[in-house]
Structure to design on (890 residues):
């Protein structure tokens, strides 16, 4: 029987980061990573395989990142918590002192007719499957993306870059509606339409229709969208079967229940990433934000806590995300106005827009718009959105630090910022600062 | 006699931002801005007039920013603090309740022979003067930039873009040596050399030589550099004559002395921007960081404090700066390793480099290198440097928020960050986080 100090089940973003952290924090400990796949994908890069990168080969997570952790290609089929062992599909039994579950998630498949037709794809993190999808897209003329969240929007944009006629069908009022407020969603939708993507919101899919060959997507209100390929981008389901079979508790958002130290209901078992339950930074309540960046952060917590379980505490998920559709980037940190209102916050909003270079005549200058969401009672920043050029992603990270640090509108109005003509807005109109100033005049004095 | 609630002397970045803030915070108050120039320049844009923008006209600060503050084109020649009036060159007397001095700075002219030769320029914020400089550059073949700080480096890069042969002469060991640590300076110098700029460091200029026509720059150790134009980029001297003539105290860094509320030794007079003394965020001691972004921040403090003088407090200058030479950007926040060591800090350093997009095969991906400087005794971040593509400027702003919030290495290792293939590094190698992880393993447990 093989034995390791740390066994990690799963070797995508969370599993790899946990192995790196474990080796860094506890260099004398033996770490084994067990995953099904010889090679895994950079998860966020998956949409970009289709058009921008052009091949799956360009989106492989380098195995060298694992350093001197041992990698075993196999599938863990059960956990014996008494014996502290895992059993694999190939029949191996491996003993652990500490176990980390990083089993990820799988695509949600909606209950409707036609999802089993050929050329209907979900977004699986599997090399061969994605190669098949890419091949199908190369043969196609019309593609329908069901689900206009950021993964769906990114797939639509990539299919458009491949020269396909693309239709997005979204159930909610807007694309990206779970990530952004309406005005920011509309900017993304406008951009999608500008580059030729057909966008249909408040639109429920009833069935995918075809006879042997895929034909069209049928929606309510009599709408039909011709499709040679359908991509279902409707979110993910955490992979928790291994954990629940072993008797570990599952949370209300369907992830493996963990505490603030990423420890499950078994003190020797951690869970991280898409398979683990998440808690909201602002409310402490379960939330369903599943992102590679969140997974990586949880892995760094679990990896450090393995043998000193109180070393790093998870204060909850702020939720920071960025996307780019055509030439327009959107970055979001924390709560949207809509989400915060639904949670019962009394809000003060500040907005500002200005060129992202200065003077505005600098080549490549783009408008960057920032919206800040403050809790009226504390004046603290609880959310922010940015839309503009390539800096919008790091702008979201500026906002995330301000949120994490509990910065108030006044703190942000006095934020220390550096500026440069080719890199940022002018100091006189730096959007985050000016949005805070706009909020301040609406706050009680 | 004219009378206003607020009189602001100077209408560049600081003066304009003070007027905007005063009008926003105290909408019923009458604000007058008095400045010499009908039109002023975007100060940070000045180097870019030469090559990138191509004309002074593209670098004008829009006067509309002043909103409904009154603008008077005139020069204030004296302050009567008893009568609470200012007198102008045109003989006007204007009464104030609160006075803000935003008189800026002027270029330092070194004491050496030849600085008065024609075609020897400093970097004055004056439209006609800069037009003359640009005209001279258009006629030139060889230009020598004396001073390799970031303004000198930016001018050198712009002259290079105009097709000139450019030589930079810097007294210190490296260009940008007051802003960055050696390794980051060397990256910038390498880039300058790569694009054809001749860089001479540890090189003292003895004289500028010419007989009627400018001929060459003479340095120690027998070095001569041919020059049709010389640009002196050696820093600035605060304009404090008006203040000192009125009996206001001057600080040891030669700025008008102010307290944390931007109030001078006269409780009704504020001073902001380049003319005002600065204090270091880390030590509370006088410092000489003069940047438009710092000026703008001080203006927002003074503007808010005008009639409620304790509304906003200046906790000192962190110093956040960014520059771009050719295609390489550098962003810095807080103390360099060298500066912190000189101030007596015991340091722990963490560094990380990775592509700024992910996977690294994404088009446009560049290496972004980050160095973090932590105070060993508190594990708090006190400085950071970034070098890479266009996001390095906002990366410096992420670092600045972390510094301002007192984030420790562990806080930064657990920073909430958003990532996207086209916009940021991978979550597994996000440079700021990984540099913190590198530092943590060197910190006492």
């Amino acid at each position: 029987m093989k034995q390791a100090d740390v066994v990690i089940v799963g070797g995508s973003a969370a599993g790899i980061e946990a192995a790196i952290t474990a080796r860094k924090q506890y260099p004398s400990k033996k770490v084994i990573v067990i995953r099904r796949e010889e090679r895994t994908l950079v998860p966020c890069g998956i949409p970009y395989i289709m058009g921008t990168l052009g091949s799956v080969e360009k989106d492989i997570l380098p195995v060298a990142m694992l350093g001197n952790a041992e990698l075993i290609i196999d599938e863990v089929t059960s956990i014996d918590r008494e014996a502290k062992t895992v059993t694999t599909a190939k029949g191996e039994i491996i003993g652990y002192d500490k176990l980390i579950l990083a089993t990820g998630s799988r695509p949600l498949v909606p209950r409707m007719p036609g999802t089993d037709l050929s050329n209907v794809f979900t977004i699986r993190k599997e090399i061969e499957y994605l190669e098949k999808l890419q091949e199908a897209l190369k043969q196609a003329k019309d593609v329908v993306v069901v689900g206009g969240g950021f993964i769906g929007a990114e797939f639509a944009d990539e299919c458009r870059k491949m020269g396909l006629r693309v239709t997005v069908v979204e159930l909610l009022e807007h694309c990206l509606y779970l990530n952004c407020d309406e005005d920011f969603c509309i900017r993304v939708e406008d951009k999608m339409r500008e580059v030729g993507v057909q966008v249909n919101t408040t639109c429920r899919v009833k069935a995918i229709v075809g006879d042997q060959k895929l034909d069209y997507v049928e929606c309510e209100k009599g709408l039909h969208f011709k499709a040679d390929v359908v991509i279902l981008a409707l979110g993910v389901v955490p992979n928790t079967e291994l954990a629940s079979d072993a008797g570990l508790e599952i949370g209300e958002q369907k992830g493996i229940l963990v505490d603030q130290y990423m420890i499950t209901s078994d003190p020797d078992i951690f869970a991280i990433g898409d398979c683990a339950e998440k808690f909201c930074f602002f409310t402490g309540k379960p939330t369903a934000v599943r992102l590679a960046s969140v997974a990586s952060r949880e892995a760094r917590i679990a990896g450090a806590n393995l043998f000193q379980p109180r070393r790093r505490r998870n204060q909850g998920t702020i939720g920071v995300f960025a996307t780019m559709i055509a030439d327009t980037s959107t970055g979001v940190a924390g709560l949207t106005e809509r989400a915060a209102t639904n949670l019962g916050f009394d809000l003060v909003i500040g907005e500002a827009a200005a060129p992202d270079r200065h003077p505005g005549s600098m080549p490549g200058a783009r408008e960057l718009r920032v919206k800040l969401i403050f809790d009226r009672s504390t004046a603290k920043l609880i959310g922010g959105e940015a839309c503009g050029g390539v800096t919008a992603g790091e702008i979201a990270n500026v906002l995330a630090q301000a949120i994490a640090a509990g910065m108030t509108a006044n703190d942000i109005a006095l934020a220390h910022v550096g500026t440069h003509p080719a890199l940022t807005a002018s100091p006189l109109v730096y959007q985050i600062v000016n949005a805070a100033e706009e909020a301040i005049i609406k706050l009680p004095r």
